[in-house]
Amino acid sequence: MHQFDFRILGPLSVTCGGEELLLGGPKQRGLLAALLLNSNRRVALERLAELLWDEPPQSATANLRTYASGLRRVIGDRLLARDGGYELAIGPGESDVERFGELVSRGRAELAAGNQSAADSRLREALDQWRGRCGEDLPGDIPLARHLGLLDEQRLLVLEDSLQLRLDLADLRQTVTEVRVLLTDHSTRERLWAVLMTALYRSGDVAGSLAAYRAAAEALDRELGMRPGQELRDLQQAILARDPALETGEAVRTPGTPVPDIPRQLPRDSRVMVGRDDELAAIMAVCSGAGRDPAQPTVVSIDGQAGVGKSALALRAAHLLAGRHPDGQLYVDLRGTTTGLEPVSSVHALAGLLRALGDPHQTSLDEHELAARFRTITADRALLLVLDNASHTQQVLPLLPASGNCTALVTSRRRLTTLDASLCLSLDVLSPAAARATLTEYGPPGEQDEEGAVADVAELCGRLPLALRIAAARRASRPDWSLAELARQLADDRRRLDELSTDDVSVRAAFAATFDALRLGDKPGESTAAELFRLMGALPMPTYGEEVLAALADVAEAELKLALRRLVDLHAVEPRAGRFVLHDLLRLFAAELAEHELTDHEREAALARVFSYCAEASRQARAQFRPVRRDLPAVVSIARQAPRPRCDTIDQAAIWFDSEREALRAMVRIADRGPAELYLPTTVIVDALSADLERDQRLPEAIELNETLARIAERNGDNVEASDCWRYLASCHQRLGNRTLARDYVARGIELARKTGQTTRLVSALNTLAIFNTESGDFGAAESLVTEALGLVGDSDEVAVGILLNTQGMNARWAGDNAKAVGHLLASLAIRRRVGDRVGQAYTRYQLGRAYLASDRLEDALLHLNALVELAVDLSARDLEREGRIARMQVLNRLGRLVEAKEDLAQALDLCEVVGQVTARSQVLVAAADPAADPERDTALATG
Fold it and tell me: How many other C-beta atoms are found inside a 10 Å radius of the C-beta of residue 784?
C-alpha cells in the first residue's frame, strides 16, 4: 500500500511519495474532507449529502458517485465503496488530524503526570500540524464547514493549554507576544485575557496587566454585550491587591472576602477517555462564552446507548469547566435507567440542590415552588450542574437554573428532543483507532500478545467504552492471559455477555436497564417496541427495513413507526440510511431475550412471517426484470396486519433488492440452520437474489447462496431443486474461469434432472453445457445439445425457446457464421419481446450487435447496441450497460464518431469502478485500443 499524507489542518491536500495530488473541484474536495473527518468508518450517502448541501438535490446520490469515481482515480483503493456509502482507508500516521489528536493526548498525559516541560513539547508538536484554518480552501457555505470549525475550536483549546503551560514555565515574554497576536482574532476568549494579564503581572508590568483587563471588558461588551466573568474579575482584584498567589499559580481570591462554602460535588474524572476530542471541543466551544445568550443558561444534552460513555464525557467537560463556575459545581444522578431503582423525582432533586446551596427554605414538597426558589437562588450565580442519567425531559426542566452564567450538562439514554438545549450530542461507539487506544491506555499489550489481538478485542467489544473497560479489567485480573486469549474468550457469541461482566458492572445489566425502561414504560408504542426488540433477537440480520420488521412483529405501519421511534429514542436501535441497526452486543442481548422470553412457537411463527413476506416480495421484484421460468412454490404472506409486498415496477424492484440484499443473504444463512418450514420460501429468495446479483456480476455471492440452498435441498430430499442449484453453480464457476469444476457441476445437474424427469431443469442444464462447449471451441457438440434441448421443449415453453435460440446464435457467431447467428438471434429477440423478457432482450441485442460488428454492418450493430444500453440503464443492470458501451464504443470508433466513443469509454470505465471489477477495466482499455477486438468476455452475457 502506498504511503499517503492526508492533511486538512489548513488547506486540504493529499501527497503520495512526496508528490501533491490534484483533488478536483470544490464538491469533490468536500467529499474527501467529509470522509477524512470520519476516516476508516463507513459514511452513508445520505449523511454525505447532508454534509455537502444545505438542501441536497434529487441528484445528490448520483453526484456523490461521480465525485467518488473522480477521487478513486486519484487515491485508488483508499476510497472503498461500502453498503450504501463510502469509507476512506487511512493507515497509522497518514492523517494530520490523527497525528494532532495523538500528540494532544500524549501532552495531556504528560501534564497529568506532572511533566510540564514534556507536556509543553508535545502540545507544541501538535500545534505544528496546523497550517491555517481547518479546510480553509473548502467552500464555507456547506454544512461540513461547521464540523471543520469544531477542529479550529479544538486547536484554540490546545493553544490555551499550551500558553498556560508556558506561563507556568516562566516563558513570559514569548507568552505575551503570542497571546497578543491571538487576541486580534479571538478577542472574546476570557482565558486568553487571563493568561495575558498574569504574564504581564509576573513580568512586573502591573499597569499593563490592568490595562489588559480594561481591554477585555471593552471587547466583551462590544462583541457580546457582556461583562467579564467571575474568574476574570477575581483576577483583576487579585492584581490590585498584589496577591502573592499570582506569582505561584495558586488560586486567587479578593482580599477580605470570606471563603464561601461552595459545593464541589463532581465525581472524579475518568482516568481513561479516548476518542471524544471532537465532542469535548464542541462542548467547550458552546460553553466558552462566545455566542452565549446572557439571559439563558447554557444547556448541553448528551445522549447515547448504554455504556457508550455519556457520563464520562460530561464529567470530563465538567472538570474542565469548573474554573469558569466559581459559585459551585453540582451533581445529581437522576437514576433514569438504574436497574432496581425508581428515577429521582424533580421534587427530591430540587430539595437536594437547594440544600447543597445552603438554602433553608426548602421544606416545601411542591415542585413549582421549589423550582421557583431554585431559580431565585441561582439567578446571580455562576454554577455548573451535571444532571446525569435523566429519564425524560420533564424530569430535567425544573432543575435548570435561570442565570446566563450557569451551565447544565445533561446525560440520558433517550434523545431529549424537547429540552431546547444549546448543544445536542448523540454519542456513537468509538472509532477503531480510539477503541484500540482505549484498551492500551488501561494496560499496554504484553510481550506475549499477538499482533492484531488488541484490534480483535476492541471489535469483539463492539468498540463500546463500557465493554472495553470491563475487558481491560478482566485481563488485568488474570495476568496469565494474553489479549489473544481474551479475544478467544469473547469470540463465543453465546458467552460474550457473560465475559463482559465484573463484580460491580456488566454490559448485560446496562442493556437490561434500557429494556426494562421499554417493557415497564407507559408511553404509547413502548410495549410494542419491547416485543419488537425481542423478535429482532430471533432474526439476526445486519440491518432491518421497516417492511421486514412489520412482518416480523405483524403490526400495522403506524404502530411500527411509533415502536421504532421509542427504540431509537433509547438508542436500542440506530437509524442508518433509512434502515435500522442493532449494535453487536445489543444483538446478542436481544438473542438472549428471544431465547428465554419467547416460546418456540412465537419464534417460529415470527420467522415464518418474515420469510413468507420476503419470498413474495422477491418473487415480485424478480418478475419485473424477466419472467419467472422456474416452477417456484407459491408463498403467500401470513402476516395479518403488516402491509403486503408491493414490487410492481422496475424502480420498486431495484429499491427492494438494493435495500434488502444483505438482509436476504442473512436469511438464507438462518434457513441453513433453521426449521424445515423455512425451506420453500428460501428457494424463492435464492432464485430472485441470484438473478439480482448477476446484474452486478457479484458471482461469488451468488455461488455462496446456491451452495447453501443445494445443501438445504439435499437435506430435505429435494433433488429437483438441487439439480437446478448445481446447474446454476456450474454457470457461475464457468464465468469465473473454474472450468473443470463447472463441468463437474453441470454433469451432476444433468444427472439429477434426468433421474427426476424434470424437463425444465434438464433443458436449463443442457443449455449451460452447450455454452461451455461454445467457449471451449467445440461448436458441433454445442449445436447438438441445443438441438436436443429444443426437441424437449417443443413449442410449449416460449421463454426456454428464446434462451436456447440465443445460445444457438452465440454458438454460430463464435464459430464464424455470422449470417446464421443473426437468423437465430433475430428469432430469439422476437420471442423475448413477445413474452416481455426485457433482460433476455438485452442479452440477445448484445449478441446481435457483436454479430453485425463482425460482419461490418455497423449501422445495424449500432441500432441493437443503442437499444441494449437503454434497456440496461432502465434495468439498473450495470454489467449489461458496461458491455454494451464497450461494444458501442468500438462501433462508433469504426464510424469515426470519436467524441461519442470517448464518452462510452469513460462511462464503461466508471461502471468497472462501481462494480469493482479490475479485470473488466483492463478489458475495456484493450477494446478501446483495437476497434476490431472481440475480447472473450462474452461469458458474462452468454447465459441470457
Answer: 14
Query: Coil, strand, or helix at residue 575?
Result: strand
Report the 3 state secondary structure along 199-259.
HHHHCCCHHHHHHHHHHHHHHHHHHHCCCCCHHHHHHHHHHHCCCCHHHHCCCCCCCCCCC
Residue 423: its H or E element? strand 423-426
Do the Cβ atoms of 412 and 389 come closer than 8 Å? yes
Determine the angle formed by the axes of helices 759-775 and 719-735, rounding to 10 degrees: 20
Answer for the pair 595, 555: CB distance below 8 angstroms, yes or no.
no
How confident is the model over 639-655, as a mean pLDDT? Answer: 78
Q: Rounded to whole angstroms, what are the CA distances from 893 to 555, 851, 933? A: 58, 17, 12
The pLDDT tens digits for 450-467 are 668 888 999 999 999 999
Contact 833, 825 (CB under 8 A): no
Q: How far apart are CA 32 and CA 18, in angstroms?
A: 19
The residues that bridge with 80 in the sheet, in sequence order, are: 87
In the chain, how long is the greatest CA-to-CA distance? 112
Determine the 3-state secondary structure of 5 from DSSP.
Answer: strand
> Buried b / exposed e across 677-707, counting CB within 10 Å, b at 16+?
ebbbbbbbbbbbbbbbbbbbbbbebbbebbe
- pLDDT for 590-645, tens place per residue? 999 999 999 999 999 999 999 999 998 888 888 887 665 555 555 655 667 777 77
Percent of the chain's residues with pLDDT above 70:
91
How far apart (Å, rounded) are the C-alpha atoms in residues 702 and 488? 31
State the residue for C-alpha cell 436469511. Answer: 667
Which span out of 34-43, 52-61, 139-148, 810-819 was modeled with the highest average pLDDT? Answer: 810-819
CA distance 707 to 725: 7
Mean of pLDDT values over 326-345: 85
What is the separation, in whole angstroms, between the first and last Cα of the chain? Answer: 39
Distance CA 403, CA 393 (A): 19
**Closest by alpha carbon to 886, among 852, 844, 850, 848?**
850
534 C-beta neighbours (distance < 10 Å), count? 24
Q: Which amino acid is at 220?
A: L
Burial class (CB in 10 A: 0-12, 13-18, 19+), 114: exposed
Residues 236-258 pLDDT 10s: 888 888 887 777 655 444 333 33
Burial class from Cβ neighbours inside 10 Å (0-12, 13-18, 19+) for residue 676 reads exposed
Q: How many CB atoms lie within 10 A of CB 105?
A: 19
- The residue whose grid cell reads 477585555 is 216
Q: CA-CA distances (angstroms) from residue 170 to 116, 127, 175, 196?
A: 12, 20, 9, 13
CA-to-CA separations, 140 to 130, 147, 281, 571, in angstroms, rounded: 18, 11, 20, 32
User: To which residue does cell 412482518 refer?
Assistant: 551
CB-CB contact of 328 with 384 (8 Å):
yes
The four Cα atoms 673, 674, 675, 679 give a dihedral, to 10 degrees, of -90
Calculated CA dihedral for residues 545, 549, 555, 561, nearest 10 degrees: -50
Which residues fall within 8 angstroms of residue 481, CB to CB, at 6 or more apart?
A: 474, 475
* 365 backbone dihedrals φ, ψ, rounded to 5°: -110, 15
Q: How far apart are CA 112 and CA 63, in angstroms?
A: 48
DSSP 480-547: T--HHHHHHHHH-TTTHHHHSB-SS-BHHHHHHHHHHHHHT--STTHHHHHHHHHHHHHS--S-B-HH
For residue 233, report the phi and psi dihedrals to the nearest 5 degrees.
-65, -40
User: Which residues, in sequence order, are bridge partners of residue 576?
Assistant: 579
Of residues 929 and 525, more confidently modeled: 525
Count of Cβ atoms closer than 10 Å to residue 17 Cβ: 9
